Amino acid sequence: MRLLAFAVIAEIPYDLAMGNGINFIANTNIFYTLFLGGTAICLCERFKERRGWQTMAVIASILPTVILAEILSVDYGSMGVLLIYAIYAVKQKKRQLIALGSFALLQFAPLATAYLIGFKFPLKYLIVIPTILATLPLIASYNGKRGYAAKWLFYWFYPAHLAVLAVIAMMIYGFPWG
Which of 74, 112, 117, 138 is deepest in the core (most CB within 10 A)? Predict the structure, then answer.
C-alpha cells in the first residue's frame, strides 16, 4: 500500500516533468510498476500456501498485474512487472543478473531495430538501457545484508527530484497543457 500511495504522490510531478498533462491512469511512474510487481509476488505467496496450486499461483498472480501494467502504461510496461517477479522467483544472484541483462536486451533490440530501419523517436528512450545495465554491478556486489535504513529518504527522493525536474521543464518549455 505504501508503494501505491507514493505512486499517487509522485504522479503529478512525474507527469509535469515528462511534459504530460496530469493523468493518474496513463503513462504512470515507476512506483506503479513496483506496486504491481509487489502485488504479483504477494498474490503468488498467498496462492502457494494452498496445496497443489503452485503453477496456478504463478499464473493467477502474474496475469492480472501484467494486464493492469499495460492498461496503466506503467514505466517499463508489463516487462517491468515480469522482471520484478523473475528476480523474486529465481533467488540466485547469477540468475537475477541474467534476467536483468536479458530484460535490457529485450528493451534495446526493438528500439535499435526501429531506429536502424528509419523510425525516428526521441533518443531519451535509449537511456533506459544504460540505467538497467548500471544496476548489474550493484546487484552483483550485494552481500545479502540490509544496508543503511533510509527507506523514507528514498521514498521521498523520487517525487521530490521529479518536482525539481518539472519546475525546470516548465521554466524551459512552459506548462504542458498550454
Answer: 74
Angstrom distance (rounded) from CA 25 to CA 73: 8
Question: What digits encode the pLDDT tens for the residues 127-164?
Answer: 667 777 788 888 888 887 877 777 788 889 999 999 99
Angle between helices 151-173 and 2-17 in degrees, nearest 10: 20
Q: Domain count of the chain?
A: 1
Dig out the grid coordinates for 177 from the structure. 497543457
In a domain, 14, yes or no: yes
Q: Residue 110 domain-assigned? A: no
Q: Per the domain annotation, does 117 fall within a domain?
A: no
Residue 148 one-letter amino acid:
Y
Cell of 10: 509522485
pTM comes to 0.77
Taking the C-alpha atoms of residue 67 and residue 7, their distance in angstroms, rounded to an integer, is 18
Closest CA to 165 of 121, 122, 107, 124: 124
Q: How remote is the C-alpha of 52 from its chain's centroid?
A: 31
Q: 110, 66, 72, 68: which is closest to 86 by C-alpha?
A: 66
Which residues form the domain of 66?
2-90+143-173
Q: Which of 48, 56, 52, 42 is nearest to 85 (CA)?
A: 42
Estimate to the nearest angstrom the gap between the alpha carbon of 53 and the chain centroid: 28
